[in-house]
Specification:
Elements (H helix, E strand, L loop, with lengths): L6 H6 L4 E4 L2 H7 L12 H4 L1 H13 L4 E3 L7 H6 L6 H19 L2 E7 L9 H20 L4 E7 L2 H14 L5 E5 L13 H10 L4 E5 L4 H14 L4 E4 L36 H14 L3 E4 L5 H10 L25 H11 L12
Helix pairs in contact: 4-6, 6-7, 7-8, 9-10, 10-11, 11-12
The protein binds zinc ion.
């Protein structure tokens, strides 16, 4: 949008850019996407739901409307028998994102993602993947994207193809390229993550970093190592999930009650609480991360925590918790209310009860 400061200008001026992600997971939670193929046909079938989510994340503090093009590439649309909708799903998603971005004076980004068919060192596949990226980049150009995101690449070589497509067909659009780190600190084509990101930076990516895969606790140590080798702006877009040293990726998380895998259908039991998002945001800012977001299992209320921690004043800030107004957890001199509270909370000493209440 004319008059909206561009991504690279913001980063050059030392600003932080917030980009909400996680459309697929939030739409699934609401009943409008399917685990398994993870495809975005809701863009065509329920466009108002997608537009609403674009808008909610903006109101929660996102500087960017990322067009919901995740797994809208030809391979995935073919998988669900809707290859003929491939162009329209991309163009519609981009148009809706552009409209919301313009309404609020935000940036709009087009998106590329892993194709799920890439095989290292298979030139036939590489050619097909490059074709899929080319058409999505061209559609993003047609729809007026401000920059391109290439995300959740676990193979360095596929990320490189995405970057090359953006450079070749993106008419100068900046490129944000993020790799996903799972349980190993290597890409699945066996390159140390920090080295792969260093190479992508060297190849001309404007921002490099990590998205998806890991939660705050397991993405931070790797980010610290990446910071040492990458010189330019760094991106950190974790899943807001409680990954651990033993279960580093959210795909590897086990239910702490049943011991069964949570991914992908039962992740909500492992979502970070707000203070963990605040802490991650502080840690990332301290490390000098300039491009921040949340991926799968993000929600407007969690993203608002990130924005508030960055010192922003999001519209939805007015709905932040205020326990002083609670009839039970605020201050009270009425014994019956204390009794209700004790019945409700039992022995749990609620953190919001003031000591002199
Ligand atoms: Zn994700």
């Amino acid at each position: 949008m004319p008059g909206t400061k561009g991504l690279t200008d913001r980063l050059r001026d030392g600003e932080t850019v917030l980009c909400a992600e996680g459309y697929l997971w939030e739409l699934e939670r609401r009943g409008f996407a399917r685990f398994g193929d993870f495809t975005p046909e809701a863009v065509l079938d329920y466009p108002e739901r997608v537009t609403a989510l674009y808008e909610e994340f903006v109101l929660a503090g996102s500087d960017v409307v990322l067009a919901y093009m995740y797994y809208a590439h030809r391979q995935k649309m073919r998988l669900i028998g809707r290859e003929e909708d491939c162009k329209s799903v991309n163009l519609k998603s981009i148009k809706m994102a552009r409209d919301v971005a313009d309404k609020y004076g935000k940036l709009m980004a087009g998106g590329l993602s892993n194709t799920t068919v890439f095989e290292p060192d298979d030139p036939d596949i590489a050619g097909k993947v490059a074709e899929m990226f080319k058409e999505q980049v061209e559609w993003a150009v047609e729809g007026g994207a401000d920059y391109m995101i290439g995300e959740t690449f676990h193979d360095f070589q596929e990320a490189k193809l995405a970057l090359e497509a953006i450079k070749k067909y993106g008419r100068g659009m900046p490129a944000v390229i993020t790799l996903v780190a799972y349980t190993k600190d290597f890409t699945t084509d066996d390159i140390p993550i920090e080295e792969a990101l260093r190479r992508l930076e060297e190849l001309g990516a404007d921002v490099v970093g990590l998205n998806c895969g890991r939660g705050p606790a397991t993405i931070m140590p790797l980010l610290e190592r990446v910071r040492k080798v990458c010189k330019g702006p760094l991106a950190a877009v974790p899943v807001p999930l409680r990954t651990t040293e033993e279960q580093k990726s959210f795909q590897s998380l086990l239910d702490h009650v049943t011991g069964k895998p949570l991914y992908p259908t039962n992740m909500t039991t492992a979502i970070c609480h707000r203070e963990e998002i605040q802490q991650f945001t502080q840690d990332a800012l301290k490390l000098g991360v300039q491009y921040l977001g949340l991926c799968c299992c993000n929600s407007p209320s969690l993203f608002r925590e990130m924005a508030l921690t960055c010192g922003r004043d999001p519209v939805l800030g007015k709905f932040s918790p205020d326990h002083s107004k609670s009839y039970l957890f605020g201050k009270t001199t009425k014994p019956h209310r204390e009794k209700i509270r004790s019945f409700m909370c039992g022995d749990a000493k609620h953190i919001y009860i003031s000591s002199d209440s």
